[in-house]
Amino acid sequence: MSEPAVVLLSGGLDSSTVVALAQVLGFDVHALSFSYGQRHTVELEAASRVAAAARIVDHKVIDIDLRAFGGSALTADIEVPKHESIDDIGEDIPVTYVPARNTIFLSYALAWAEVLGSTDIFIGVNALDYSGYPDCRPEFVAAFQQLARLATKTGVEGDQITIHAPLIDMTKAEIITTGTQLGVDYGLTISCYDPDDAGRSCARCDSCLLRHQGFVDAGVPDPTTYQPDAAPA
C-alpha cells in the first residue's frame, strides 16, 4: 500500500510538477489548495483541473482570509507590477510577496499530514528562477522541517517529518522538461498574478515572464492562454 503525502497545489506550473514527482515516488497524493483572498482566484480552477487529471486521492481547498491583513499586490488593492522583459525584473522582494504565506500553508499541510499518518509534505518552492520571495529559499524549508519535527506528536514520538522541495535547485526550464517527461499537461495550469475574468494570463507580470522564458529555454511550446494583444515578446 502506498504511503500518503500532502502536496501543496496552487494550480501553477511548479506545484503541478510536484504532484507528478510525488506520484512517481510512489506516494498517494493528498493535495491542498487555498482560497486566501488572492486576486487570481482562477488558480483554484486550475488546481482542480490538475488534481482531476492526475487522479489524486483527495483534494481539499481551504478558506482563509489574508486580505484581512493585505500587504501584498495579491491580497490588497495594490497594482501588480508589469514589465516588458524578464530583464526588467528587479532583485528586491517584490510587492507580490504575501507575508508569511508559505509558513501558513505548510502549517495547514502539517496538520493534515498528522491526521493522515503521513510524514511527507511536498512544496513547489524554487530558489533559482523565482521572484525573490524569502519563503522560497532552502533555509526556510530546512527551518520549517525542524519546526515540524519539534512541534508535532508525530515528530515527538520519533517519526521524521520531511518537507520535500524537489524543485528548489531547478531552473524553470528544467522544471518544465521534467514535468513534460512525466506527462504534466501545462495547458491546465495558470501562473499569472493578474489574469482577466476569463482566466487568460497578462504576459507581463513577473510570474508570466518567468514561466514563458522557461518554456523558451526548455524548447517546449508555451500552452498558456494569454489576453488579446498580450502575448510575450
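Next protein, fold it too.
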Amino acid sequence: MSNSRFLTALACCVAALVGCSKDGVQTIASPVPGSGVKFYNFSTGAPSVNFYANDTKVTAVSSTSGQESTSGTAYGAVATGGLYTGIAPGQYTLSGRITAATDNGLAIASAPTTIADGKYYSFYLSGPYNTTTKKSDFFILEDAAPPAQIDYQMAYVRFVNAISNSSPMTLYAKNRTSGAELPVGGSVGYKSAGALTPVPIGPYDLIARVTGSTANAITLTEVGLSPARAYTVSARGDMTITSTTAATRPILTNSTDR
C-alpha cells in the first residue's frame, strides 16, 4: 500500500494528542501524527474500556444523542472500528480504563511504551480479567509493514496469539476454491506474532492448529484477502470453552491493518 493511500486511511482515525471532546465526538484540528496504535480488548470477562495515551483519551464511542456512551470498547472488539489511532512519537503509558459508572476511569491495564516515528503498533488487553484485582494482562506489538515492492497478486497476513491458556499455534489459510492450504508464518505462542506472510489473493478459511497437530483448534470461514492489503488475524478466548456460542470460546478475529 502506498504512503499516500495509507495516510488517507489514517486520516479517518482518531488523532491522539488532539484528544476526544467530552461528548466523545472526535476533534481533528491538527496534522495527522506519523505513528499509530490499534487497540484490542481481548481480555476474557473484561469490562468495556476507553483507551488512553498517558491521560489523553484516544478512543471513545458516541451514542445516538451525540454524548459519549459508557459502552466503550467491549470484549472482543477492536477500538475505532479497527482503524489505527494516530499518536505522535514519544514516551507514553497506554491504558484501558473502565467506562461503566462503577469503577469509572479505573485502569485495568497500563503499559509504558515508546512510540517511534513512522511506526505502527497493536496494544492488546489479553488473558482472563481478574475480578478481584480488576486487572487484565496485556502486550504491545510493533506492526510490520508490507515490503516496499508489493506484489499485487498477494495479500499479507500475520497471526497473533492472545489466548493465555493456549499452546503455541500455527495459522493456516485454506483456499475455498482450490482447497490448497498453506501455513501463515510459523508457530506462535501467547503474546507473540508470526511473520507477515504473503498469501495469494482469494477466498479463504483461516484455521489455527496447535503446532504439530492436524486437528483444527479454531476456524474462521469465508475470509476474502484483497490485493496488497495487510491483515492481522488474532486468536482470543479461552481454550477450555467447548461451547460453540459462548462469547469467551476460542475465536479468530481478522483486522485490516493497511
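About the second fold: Confidence is low (pLDDT under 50) at residues 1-30.
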